[in-house]
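Q: Predict the assembly, please.
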Amino acid sequence: MSWQIKPENFGCPLPAADGATVQLAHGGGSRLAAELIEQTLVPAFADPVLSRLEDQAVLESPLGAGERLAFTTDSFVVDPLFFPGGSIGELAINGTINDLAMGGARPLYLSVALIVEEGLELAILRRVIADLGAAAKAAGVRVVTGDTKVVGRGSCDKIFINTSGIGAVPAGLALSAANLQPGDKIIISGTMADHGMAIMSCRQGLSFAEPLTSDTAALHQLTAAIMAAAGMPPAAPAQKANEPEAGQALRAMRDPTRGGVAAVLTEMARASRVGVVIAEETLPVAGPVRGACEILGIDPLFVANEGKLLAVVAPESAGAVLQAMREHPLGRQAAIIGEVVAENPGLVALRTALGPHRIIDLPSGELLPRIC
Amino acid sequence: MSWQIKPENFGCPLPAADGATVQLAHGGGSRLAAELIEQTLVPAFADPVLSRLEDQAVLESPLGAGERLAFTTDSFVVDPLFFPGGSIGELAINGTINDLAMGGARPLYLSVALIVEEGLELAILRRVIADLGAAAKAAGVRVVTGDTKVVGRGSCDKIFINTSGIGAVPAGLALSAANLQPGDKIIISGTMADHGMAIMSCRQGLSFAEPLTSDTAALHQLTAAIMAAAGMPPAAPAQKANEPEAGQALRAMRDPTRGGVAAVLTEMARASRVGVVIAEETLPVAGPVRGACEILGIDPLFVANEGKLLAVVAPESAGAVLQAMREHPLGRQAAIIGEVVAENPGLVALRTALGPHRIIDLPSGELLPRIC
Amino acid sequence: MCLAVPGKVVEIFEENGLKMGHIDYAGAISRACLEYVPEIRLGDYTVVHAGFALSILDEEEAAKSFAAWRELQAAAAREGVDLFGRPLADADADADEQE
Amino acid sequence: MCLAVPGKVVEIFEENGLKMGHIDYAGAISRACLEYVPEIRLGDYTVVHAGFALSILDEEEAAKSFAAWRELQAAAAREGVDLFGRPLADADADADEQE
Amino acid sequence: MLKHLDEYRDPALARKLLAEIAAVTTRPWVIMEICGGHTHAIIRHGIDLLLPRQLELVHGPGCPVCVTPVALIDQALALARRPEVIFTSFGDMLRVPGSRESLARIRARGGDIRTVYSPLEAVNLAVQNPAQEVVFFAVGFETTAPGNALAVQQAARLGLTNFSLLVSHVLVPPAIGALLAAPDNRIQAFLAPGHVCTVEGLQDYEAMAAAHQVPMVPAGFEPVDILAAILLLVRQLEEGRAQVENEYRRSVRPEGNPAARLAVEQVFQVCHRTWRGLGEIPASGLRLRPEFAAFDAQCKFALEETGEMESPQCISGAILRGESKPPQCPAFGKECTPEHPLGATMVSSEGACAAYRHANRQ
Amino acid sequence: MLKHLDEYRDPALARKLLAEIAAVTTRPWVIMEICGGHTHAIIRHGIDLLLPRQLELVHGPGCPVCVTPVALIDQALALARRPEVIFTSFGDMLRVPGSRESLARIRARGGDIRTVYSPLEAVNLAVQNPAQEVVFFAVGFETTAPGNALAVQQAARLGLTNFSLLVSHVLVPPAIGALLAAPDNRIQAFLAPGHVCTVEGLQDYEAMAAAHQVPMVPAGFEPVDILAAILLLVRQLEEGRAQVENEYRRSVRPEGNPAARLAVEQVFQVCHRTWRGLGEIPASGLRLRPEFAAFDAQCKFALEETGEMESPQCISGAILRGESKPPQCPAFGKECTPEHPLGATMVSSEGACAAYRHANRQ
Ligand code: SF4
Ligand code: SF4
Ligand SMILES: [Mg+2]
Ligand SMILES: [Mg+2]
Ligand SMILES: [Mg+2]
Ligand SMILES: [Mg+2]
Ligand SMILES: [Mg+2]
Ligand SMILES: [Mg+2]
Ligand SMILES: [Mg+2]
Ligand SMILES: [Mg+2]
Ligand SMILES: [Mg+2]
Ligand SMILES: [Mg+2]
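A: Predicted assembly structure:
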């Protein structure tokens, strides 16, 4: 049998790979899509399971005895794509690792799904993918499955990334925003608002004497250090899921991303039906970040962080946890910023430097620079 | 201690919830975001783990002895959002279930991540979310974690959805596009091109005597029936991962979405280094779909399906698998459309009704209606 | 050039002063401008290119062509051989080897 | 109205015919138009509103104000009571109860 | 460390000033801080909670969000909807509702609306987009007017024909005059706006202090500034004086900023202006001079006054004058909420109605 | 079941016709199918692989993608880049490269380019977007011209001033004449374009068949049609006749479609036209009549001829005339690939160079 080899598509649709920009055809089921996957995506993540290019990754069970599965997802839509101290690629890897780590999980596997705008320079796409690969490698987490869609010009803003993540939660550990108890201490792992102000400063044309950089970082090693310092996970046999062990010293961890510290504390106060009080003078903010906040009329409590966490710890363990955090490179400026109280459940109050308290509510809209 | 309750944001940023459209503020860390999550997303999925609203879902290990984890991700970017026979919400749930099912996995948990354009009518967003919830419920799969981002007007096309999924793969099962062997039969579960032509017809202003509907469907029960008919999974103890059992009759399954049947078969032929021959007259295409394809000059082999699968089966099991498929409501029109050959590895050929073969290549670009 | 597919006129209407129609192709319905086939009637088949009906298919001529071709075919069948001169029974089984 | 923050002039330049400057706020640098403070020099502090420098801060006046206030404070400290009339040692510990 | 800022937040110094205020206060006094910046600082630092109970601070109308009338917002919205227009605004105005919607909503529906930090950015946008009309929403008080004036002069210098201003400038002294002239006026002293005075100087305030026998103290915006100014005011009140005492000497000169005043004079002229919540106040606003009519969006686009009025239910005027409290309003918490405000004092989150609402106070 | 289509795909009938062709063919013959639609069908169904070896089918230049010259594509690209223009085109033209890029690439960089199925959709876009200029890329042969003519008439009737055509219409008979006049011509018979003849009738073809003594058979586009037409051609060739025999009688009338011809005549006039790969052919195109100059994008936007030429390396003219094979071209597979085509026969995926390339034939 001899085959007459002929082009498949006899109408006039022409190939249009110009080598420079993303085409709709990069989006799936086409020759360009296959090229992008095989020449750029697969090498960037260098993972044997991903390289098989099946519809799904199939993985040996990663769970030890009594361990539970952690699962999370986030989309990343930052503009600009590259900013001082980071890029959308790093954010996408670190952000999902962090959402796993906040539950006490060891991050194991990530998915990466790209939505790319037609016309984006391929060089930019390749740089984003390289950043994704480098961040995953740096964190020691495997990218095992992925997806790429290309949408028409004007149908998305350059590139959006979704990462989902799977991790393993040690037996007996049950961290939850609903675990807070009066007397607990609120610890932040470092300065507030670095990421959000680095981004906003790009947009507002601010510059900095020393570059203001995003704090994007993978926090799973810091969370491991915190858990160890808090005596977690216990050596004891696994318990009923999500029932906090009696006296579990570490109540909850959260990374204060969008909405900032204010949003995370409000969510915790609501979930636990407790009050939270933080003290203005204890809130760590880097000088230039504070300068930028003052100029633009923005409160750092509401600004996003991408490499910080809030840990809520029983008072007797707060010292040990704070110490452990400060010994970790990502927690050098850790500080106790407040505590949990029984009064005013669901509300967060800031004790100002002058003494009075004011309620910190969820922000009611996007943060905009103001003149008034 | 008495607190003086005061608004948090003393500048003039005003709340702007107008009740009718999506605002940037719905996107995270704000009062509107919390409202959207609590009033719309949580009830739509009605899942106890999702309802905890932690950064991650924590789940008891879903894996039985010897079972492996399946993990997949896809983004959905369809325009229009609602089309005859389905909607982006149904696609997003079914598509990820299908990518799990194609690996032989029982689909267990899904994540849902929304990217929403500022200005979208809230009623539309609520309808999309309701569709997501209904599709997950219908398929018996839990949505346990999620994310919502809102991007500025013009930065995305109404709504994009990413779903990622976790499933459990039975011990000893190793389906792969690399498993094809000469002599294997290619079976399709039903008519081609229904989804893609339903969408394209909306855009091209075609209508239909009887509505042409997308075939979107969750195929995990059909795949279970196929595996049972093929004698899979074996009762035998688990083997080394991804080593196909000697004589495993079911080689691979794939859902021919973007790029259609042509793209899936080409990927399989390449991965297995075999040739594939399909016979034109065996390809099932519904009459109106064929009519629409003829008018617009589009080949149904390249058009997306959202509720069909291709199964490659050892010849001795092909009859049983075909029978089992036809007994399932989603496989009534299943047909053997071709077979695997040793010649011309990596290429797919179509035997035309007149006898000659022509090579089916990957499409080189987006499908466009043509006049020539 | 000139992709054009025959379909059946199932509706005739006016739009912006133009004679328009709905054309049925095995259940898929498209719109076409009928200005160039003024005499067209419901049920007629027409060839449509780029949204314009360009001719009314002549059923009589079509039937005549088929009659001629069928005649050829019947002659061959009477001879008991296929188009390659081989016995008709084998024709389907080994069409591949013909190339 | 009129959010305006004092910053230090670290650079002066011309742009589109306008006198412009870079202003440092603890390391954050913004641009401001200096047309309304023509006599400004590097190192001066200026109050900037909506991108316009509106005054040069008078260090002497600032020092005078502080001297007056510190005097008040020193007087209180000499009295050994805080602003609520209680012994100074307790002031920090139970500020909350003041409200 | 932010110099000229952090030292004015010194808690010890603030407490000393509070003690001194407490020491000199013998009777109830009502003081209005006219400027929204002061309101913001007072609430942010909790200053009102630390003052002696006898001192009542009343929040004034010193915020463009509060006072820009609905009819003018509606004109802004009409411009922003035009396809050829790039509408530019300070971030502050984005969420202010007009009679039916806001700039943020129009942007959400596709309007090309950009927030700028300086009016010169709007001029640059006009240079960069010659095929489009760039309109800048020139709101604000005396402090903002010089920058907006220079933007017009710069556009004229560059020969731009696609740049214009929708002007809604207001002036503080006429508003103070109107508040003091109200029959039920309770305000006995004013914390005067430090940055307005930085531009305009003290002359008008001295005239008003003398005419109305009301003490006025221009103040900076940090806790120590505000407390020092309140101390100066209370001392005057207690002593029966009514003068202008300048707390903010490091920035405010008696003559203001002559260069800035000159530019404002060259570009703008005084006009009547309607204030949301207060109604029309004669000679209380600025508009472009006729020679700059080419830069006046109202002329250029032939905008019509919609005549849109405040809600008839709204009593925010009385609230702003300190005559009523929000719960006395029949719409409070019912037709009128922060999400769907009917009046000025619910529009701004600094407004009394919004503050009461957030506090769930009835 | 598609009536008037599926019955013409009957494999049994096709085989009978093939047998008959085989039976009557005694010598080598070279037949050109001028129309890309025929090329498409021949390849789709594998017809060329079933014909007797002595019959050679040569693909003709009957595809607007193949023949629209680079200079005209460049004009389309220049229009599509203009911010005020909505550029409309059949999907076919989207990926055709001009001298440096394609419509698809300009769309990717932000150009407002929309694919339409009918030129009336472009007219509707002009009605719906009065503030923008809608340009329609009027490519095609005689078949497409009536629709494009009516679009212009309709735009005139509606009084549209924002609608225009970039015209690149070509005519088949002059191209056939040019091919036959080439010194090395090998083509002995033509499968004539069934839909072109449906519009234009058979007069020109009868004249050419007589003048050049070359058989011509207008054919439908299904396998049975094409095979029946080839049978008619081979019979003529074998018998030494040179006539027009109409295979596609159900659609093609000798006089064509008078209403369609009249509209074309009213709106267009014959002009010289350059064909990519073939060069200028006198009286081989259509352009708008002067009375419709207001709808002529080339006048309206004062487009300049870029004078962009085919690559000097390219031998696609010779290939199109059947004189050379692609591997004889020095650029084949080197500078010239389907992704970066230099010439007509690599541009269209139906072209001989592209087909050779896909087949990895050297
Ligand atoms: S509650 Fe609303 S309507 Fe009533 S006074 Fe306040 S702002 Fe006006
Ligand atoms: S290979 Fe390219 S350059 Fe050579 S003849 Fe073909 S189209 Fe022209
Ligand atoms: Mg998450
Ligand atoms: Mg996150
Ligand atoms: Mg998080
Ligand atoms: Mg995918
Ligand atoms: Mg997938
Ligand atoms: Mg999929
Ligand atoms: Mg799939
Ligand atoms: Mg999230
Ligand atoms: Mg606009
Ligand atoms: Mg354009």
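The first helix of chain B runs from residue 31 to 45. Chain B touches chain F at residues 204-205, 281, 287, 290-291, 294, 296, 352-359, 361, 364-365, 368-372 (CB under 8 Å).
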